[in-house]
């Protein structure tokens, strides 16, 4: 996405220009990357602008409702600069699995949807645990991307 604004000109609407920029950057990578870029169908080249989600929406927002929650990019969208998107989705899975697993152990495999020791409480524990970690990463990711495109 950083390459879309070179020399003050927006190249996003022109697939041929996007491919030329990609070729330029692919030359510093192993040769097969340049081959992939050169063989790409230019009509399939797309771009998406960096979007910002306020970190306080992650931290203070409603990330679960009853027995339903969000995970991965739905919980904490971030730009690719820190390389943490997939990693955080895996961490989400582990933490959610641990909370639900602990519920299963505590209730000897009987999951309730109401009352004490229910799924909603396990999910709430997952959300509370993940909010702290991902809020900082969303902030760091945004600022890293912001600096790379010139602030």
Offer a quick outline of the entry.
With 151 residues, the chain is mostly helical.
Any overview of this molecule?
The chain has 151 residues and is mainly alpha-helical. The chain has 2 domains: 1-49, no CATH class; 55-149, no CATH class. The protein contains 5 helices and 4 strands. It has helices spanning 15-26, 31-39, 55-60, 85-106, 119-148; strands at 5-6, 9-10, 64-65, 68-69. Strands 1-2 form a two-stranded antiparallel ribbon. The chain has a two-stranded antiparallel ribbon with strand order 3-4. Strand 3 and strand 4 form a beta hairpin. Helix 4 packs antiparallel against helix 5 (119-148). The longest helix is centred in the C-terminal third of the chain and has 30 residues, at 119-148. It comes from Citrus sinensis (Sweet orange). Keywords: Monooxygenase, Oxidoreductase. InterPro entries: FAD-bd, FAD/NAD-bd_sf, MOase.
Per-chain topology:
Layout: E1 5-6, E2 9-10, H1 15-26, H2 31-39, H3 55-60, E3 64-65, E4 68-69, H4 85-106, H5 119-148
Antiparallel strand pairs: 1-2, 3-4
Helix pairs in contact: 1-2, 4-5
Contiguous helical run count:
5
Overall, the morphology is: elongated
Q: What is Rg? A: 21 Å
How many structural domains can be distinguished in the coordinates?
2
Class by helix and strand content? mainly alpha
Stretches where pLDDT is under 50 for at least 5 consecutive residues are 1-7
Largest sheet: 2 strands, antiparallel
Range of strand content:
5-15%
Beta strand count: 4
Listing every helix as H and every strand as E from the N terminus to the C terminus, the arrangement reads EEHHHEEHH
Helix content: 40-55%
The CA-CA distance between the termini, in Å, is 14 Å
Q: List the strand order in the largest sheet.
A: 1-2
**Overall pLDDT level:** 79
Keywords: Monooxygenase, Oxidoreductase
GO molecular function, one term: monooxygenase activity
Pfam families: FAD_binding_3 (PF01494)
Family: Belongs to the 3-hydroxybenzoate 6-hydroxylase family.
């Amino acid at each position: 996405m950083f390459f879309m604004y070179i020399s003050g000109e927006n190249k996003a609407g022109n697939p041929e220009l996007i491919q030329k920029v990609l070729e330029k950057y692919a030359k510093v990578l192993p040769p097969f990357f340049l081959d992939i870029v050169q063989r790409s169908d230019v009509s399939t080249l797309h771009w998406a602008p960096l979007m910002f989600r306020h970190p306080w929406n992650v931290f203070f927002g409603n990330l679960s409702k009853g027995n339903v929650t969000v995970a991965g990019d739905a919980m904490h969208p971030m730009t690719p600069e820190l390389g943490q998107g997939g990693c955080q989705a895996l961490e989400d899975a582990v933490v959610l699995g641990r909370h639900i697993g602990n519920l299963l152990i505590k209730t000897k495999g009987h999951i309730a949807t109401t009352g004490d020791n229910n799924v909603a409480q396990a999910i709430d524990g997952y959300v509370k645990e993940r909010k702290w970690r991902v809020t900082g990463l969303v902030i760091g990711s945004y600022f890293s991307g912001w600096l790379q495109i010139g602030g």
